[in-house]
């Protein structure tokens, strides 16, 4: 039985323009119809009026990815990405069922108001209903540090926490999660990305690190191997500053310890403005050629499309939050020599231009005893572009670490 937050709706001819494409106004009402249908199948269409509240739309962001035509059946998926006292944010996606093409993604910010137009609390029943949604692909949802995170947990043994970069999700670790037997693999979506909550505000490296510590507390893990890619590495540096005694070993993948310089900080603000104005799709299109190697782009269109989709599905609030967190992060170069005694593996894609091999070499030599593995045929995403080699490098390292 699909969860009631998945609603199938058919596109009618009168909703389409002269060229036969589903038009914008009709699209907006399909998104709305999907939300009401969901309530009909859940707590009831009157869940708000029962509580004397009305959900007033305050902001709408829609990214149109592909055209839909009369007769297409679209599957609308609704998730609550932020649940405040009087406001909430819903993220909706519409996919065509017959070919699973992502047609559009949307974010709606609501404020609950009473008859006088004053903010009133979000009905408890509505919040409870939305929080029963599941995450996809065998992941579970855990509420830690005030946010609901989608987390995949597999296997038994020493725990490894996999932390993805920006703007990705836990599935970049798919090959490692599937094959690193003998370890308890824990892969969350960071707040604001993937299927985790995406609050409008409240992002920072410290906050991400606290989310991870709270997640490990919830799972009863106090001795962990950390593995972070790019922004995931920045988060791990914050984690290490606070909870070094909980860390058994460290794997840094395509990341850097330096903070952003003036130019990079400016570029973060420009990217945030572009995300706000043009949506996640525009960011995804601009980033794709930078994160994958020429070989992956040329010979693995499915991998490229998978990565593009992950980026395009990232909530805009989460993108903007991550960009500000990266812009404001501390320099961690001083931390590197203090990691003496912590078994560390540094991995980098040979073609990475965002966090290039030279930087990875410098970082590895600043951490006493660290090993470096350069992965050929990969740019910024070795776990995805060269999954076998990357997993083998991690496995060899884990053999030594135990
Ligand atoms: C990432 O992959 O997390 C980003 O490329 C990191 C960054 O932009 O600094």
Would you give an account of this structure?
The mean pLDDT is 93. The protein is globular, with a radius of gyration of 22 Å. It is an alpha/beta fold and 402 residues long. Helices cover 38% and strands 24% of the residues. The structure holds D-malate (MLT). D-malate is lined by residues 165-166, 230-231, 326, 354, 380.
- Show unreliable segments: none
User: If you average the pLDDT, what whole number results?
Assistant: 93
Strand line-up across the major sheet:
6-7-9-8-10-11-12-13
Question: How much helix, percentage-wise, in residues?
Answer: 25-40%
Reading the helices and strands in chain order gives EHHEEEEHEEEHEHEHEHHHHEHEHH
Biggest sheet descriptor: 8 strands, mixed
Instruction: Give the ligands present.
Output: D-malate
End-to-end Cα distance, whole Å, is 42 Å
> Can you tell me the overall shape?
globular
Radius of gyration: 22 Å
Number of helices: 13
Tell me the strand percentage band: 15-25%
Q: Structural class of the helices, strands and pairings?
A: alpha/beta
Number of strands: 13
């Amino acid at each position: 039985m699909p969860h009631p937050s998945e609603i199938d709706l058919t596109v009618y001819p009168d909703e389409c323009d002269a060229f036969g494409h589903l038009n914008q106004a009709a699209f907006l009402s399909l998104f709305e119809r999907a939300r009401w249908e969901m309530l009909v199948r859940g707590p009831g269409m009157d869940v708000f009026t029962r509580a004397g509240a009305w959900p007033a739309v305050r902001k709408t962001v829609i990214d149109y990815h592909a055209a839909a035509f009369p007769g297409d059946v679209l599957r609308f998926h609704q998730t609550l990405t932020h649940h405040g006292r009087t406001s909430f944010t819903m993220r909706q996606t519409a996919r065509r069922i017959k070919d699973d093409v992502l047609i559009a993604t949307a974010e709606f910010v609501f404020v609950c108001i009473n008859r006088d137009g004053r903010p009133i609390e979000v009905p408890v029943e509505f919040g409870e209903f939305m929080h029963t949604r599941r995450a996809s692909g065998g992941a579970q949802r855990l509420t830690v540090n005030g946010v609901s995170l989608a987390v995949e947990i597999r296997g038994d043994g020493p725990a490894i926490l996999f932390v993805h970069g920006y703007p990705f999700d836990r599935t970049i670790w798919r090959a490692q999660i599937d094959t690193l037997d003998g370890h308890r693999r824990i892969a969350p979506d960071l707040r604001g990305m993937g299927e985790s909550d995406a609050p409008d505000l409240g992002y920072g490296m410290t906050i991400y690190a606290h989310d991870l510590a709270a997640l490990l507390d919830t799972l009863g893990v106090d001795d962990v191997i950390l593995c972070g890619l790019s922004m995931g590495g920045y988060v791990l540096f914050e984690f290490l500053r606070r909870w070094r005694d909980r860390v058994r070993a460290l794997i840094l993948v395509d990341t850097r310890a330096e903070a952003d310089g003036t130019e990079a900080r400016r570029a973060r603000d420009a990217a945030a403005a572009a995300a706000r104005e043009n949506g996640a799709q525009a960011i995804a299109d601009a980033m794709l050629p930078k994160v994958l190697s020429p070989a992956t782009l040329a010979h693995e269109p499915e991998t490229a499309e998978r990565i593009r989709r992950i980026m395009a599905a990232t909530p805009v609030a989460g993108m903007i939050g991550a960009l500000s967190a990266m812009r404001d992060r501390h320099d961690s170069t001083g931390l590197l020599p203090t990691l003496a005694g912590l078994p560390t593996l540094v991995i980098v894609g040979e073609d990475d231009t965002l966090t290039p091999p030279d930087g990875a070499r410098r970082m590895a030599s600043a951490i006493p005893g660290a090993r470096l593995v350069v992965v050929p045929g990969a740019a910024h995403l070795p776990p995805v572009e060269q999954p076998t080699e990357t997993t083998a490098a991690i496995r060899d390292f884990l053999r030594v670490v135990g």
